[in-house]
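Per reviewer request, we include the raw input and output of the structure prediction for the construct analysed in the revised manuscript.
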Amino acid sequence: MDRALLLALNEERRVRRAAVVVTDLVTGSGRLVRQADVAQDPLDETLREAFRSGQSRQVEVDGCALFLNVHLPSPRLVIIGAVHISQALAPMARIAGFELEVIDPRTAFATPERFAGSTLHADWPEEVLARQPLDAFCALAALTHDPKIDDYPLKAALQAGCFYVGALGSRKTHATRLARLAESGVSEDQLRTIRAPIGLDIGASNPAEIAVAVLGEVIAAMRGRIGVAG
């Protein structure tokens, strides 16, 4: 890989954008394709499948042998609320390969003792997400039941196009939440993508079981197996 191509790829990695390096296996020449530019590329459909699967592979297009080296940002799970569900969810998400962060301004809950091994921010979500913005390769789980803490990151996640946005609460609580978010300027289409009540419907009844349901739903969304809430 030549220096200019490597620098361009490293920049995409730095800003957490997906890219594919297309290499001609006969000539050895390579080029970088950003996900945002796929529609204008002659390998349109082949590249779309590469981004969907995340799998690098050799392909043949119009008699040319090419290797597609797919570079996707690591999936990141941002948990809002250092609650009991979060204590169970955090280690499971790390095992599943997620970059994991827990955010909660309530210092009585957000303690290293309760979240050993996890990246923990005892700050308001507004402050943390200003430093580390959400993106399309992020999942967000809002678990505090407190609008003052949950609403901002939910809106930020919808605006960033996160692949999963879920919120804890009953259907009545969620209806009230939707009204608040709509009043703040969130569109109906965006609101429909929030998974609430959060988690797969497996009859979960305690924090650990709810954590399993949430992680399962996040993974299903990441692999493209669930649609929008409705």
